[in-house]
Amino acid sequence: MPQFQDHFAPVAATYASARPSYPPLLFAWLAKTCSARDLVWDCATGNGQAAVALGDWFTRVIATDASSEQLVHAQPHDRVIYRRTSAEDSGLRDASVDLITVAQALHWFDLPRFHREVRRVLKPNGLFAAWSYGRLRIDDPAVDRFFQSFYSETLSAYWPAERHHVETGYRDLAFPLRLQPVPTFTMTDGWTCGQVFGYVRSWSATAKLCEARGEVAMDSFIARLLQIWGDPERTCVVTWPLTILVGHPLDDSI
C-alpha cells in the first residue's frame, strides 16, 4: 500500500474556509436517487463540506479522512460522525451503507483496494457517487488570463501528478460501475479578489511554491491580481467544470 501523503495539511485551515461549495441540488438528487437514507459514508471528507450537506438528507453520515489536520477543521453537524481512517480500510460493517460519496479525492486513492472496500460495505442496492471540479474560469477576460497563466506556468512544477486526473475529468480513472445518467449541475459563484486569492492559497501546489521560493512568490501574485482586478470588493462570476460519476458497483469487476 502506498504511504499516505497528506498534501493539504499545510493549508488545512485555509482549505476549510476557502474552497467552493458543491451544488445543493446535487445532494437533494442523491438523496432522491438512493433506495434508503439510513447511512452515508463520505470518504476522504476533508473539512466535511460534503458530509454536512449530506447530513441534511440522511439519518447518519460517517465521514472519514486519513488527515488528522483536515479533521481538526471539520464542520460540526448533529448527524455527522468524523473518523480518522484510510479510504481503503473504512472500519464499517459489511453491506451497511446506502450511499458512498467521494468529493474531490478519488484520484488520491489506491483504487483497486478502495474498490474492494466499496463492494464490501455498500448494500446490494446501494449507490456510489464521486465528483471532482477542475480549473476555475473567471468571467473577466483579463483576470482570467492572468489566473490561467499562474495556474499553468508558475505552478506547473508544483502540482502533484494525481492532479492530472482532475484535469481530465476522471476519464482515465478506473470506475467499475453501472453508470447512470446524472442531471447537469452548475458549480458557480460570485467572488471578490480576496476570495479568489484565498482559494489559490488553499492549493497544495501553492504551499509547495512558497516552500521553494518563499512568501514573496504569493506577494507578487496578489499584487498583480489586485492591479488587474481593480476594486477589490468587485465580484466576478467564477465557474468550475464539474465531473459527476454515479452508479452501482459491478460485482465481478471490483
Short description:
By secondary structure, the chain is of the alpha/beta class. The protein has ten helices and ten strands.
CATH fold descriptor: Rossmann fold
CATH homology superfamily name: Vaccinia Virus protein VP39
The rounded distance between the terminal residues' Cα atoms is: 17 Å
| Beta-strand content bin | 15-25%
Structural class: alpha/beta
| Helix/strand order, N-terminal first | HHEHEHEEHEEHHEEHHHEE
Reported for the largest beta sheet, the result is: 7 strands, mixed
Shape designation: elongated
**Unreliable parts:** 6-12
Mean pLDDT: 90
Radius of gyration: 19 Å
Number of domains: 1
Number of strands: 10
Domain Methyltransferase type: 42-129
Keywords: Methyltransferase, Transferase, Ubiquinone
GO molecular function, one term: S-adenosylmethionine-dependent methyltransferase activity
Organism: Thiocystis violascens (strain ATCC 17096 / DSM 198 / 6111) (Chromatium violascens)
